[in-house]
From TrEMBL:
This is HIRAN domain-containing protein. Signal peptide: none annotated. Pfam families: HIRAN (PF08797). One of its GO terms (molecular function) is hydrolase activity, acting on acid anhydrides, in phosphorus-containing anhydrides.
Amino acid sequence: MVKPVYNIKDHDLLSLLQKTLLFEGFVAGYKFYSENDLEWEVMRNKLNLVRYSNNEFDDNAVAVFAGDKMIGYVPKANSKTIAECLDKGEELYSELIHVDPVAADKNKVFFKIWRFKETH
């Protein structure tokens, strides 16, 4: 729960939050979920993370969606920390950094995942 700030002039609201970078890299498996011109759809929509605990290849799988379209996963090598945060109910923020329509599929969508926590 966030504590109320009564005198906004005395506080910088962002200083009440700790920002931690949990992941920075490319969406994995993009080629399996891509369609023609999907890059434009990715650029127009917010990225969302969805926990997929029943994935047969990764118990810690976290799917990446652009709007309502799945575009791939957080890479398996990085999924455990992200999955643990989601399993605990933590809110994570996914930030689209770059989409390159002419790049190889494994290098098309670059994004970051951030965790914000209240500081005390």
